[in-house]
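Notes taken during the Thursday session

The instructor put the following on the board and asked us to keep it in front of us for the whole hour. The protein is DUF1778 domain-containing protein. We were told not to look anything up and to reason only from what is written here. First, the residues (100 in total):
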Amino acid sequence: MTRVNERKDQPVSMRLPEADIAMIDRAALLRGRSRTDFVRDAAVRAAEETLMDVMPIRMSAAGFEAFTDALSSPAVPVQEMVEVFRRPAPWEAAASKGED
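Then, after some discussion, the predicted structure tokens were revealed:
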């Protein structure tokens, strides 16, 4: 009996202008990735975003009620975030030190 090996990976081929290849190669180099890895990740990420834009979100009636209740309830401040926003921004802190 002959056994057929199934390929798990499928090749994808495309023709691109040299300028596009140069930009992809530069970006891949900056990320420490190969061209193939960089292009595959970018293509998969774009495909996921597209699918998420058109796919409905499904949940149970109880889950939807809990979701709408959470949206309708009053906001509760997160103390850690309040503290962060009270601090001067780094450029504000540096400017005030230089004014002395």
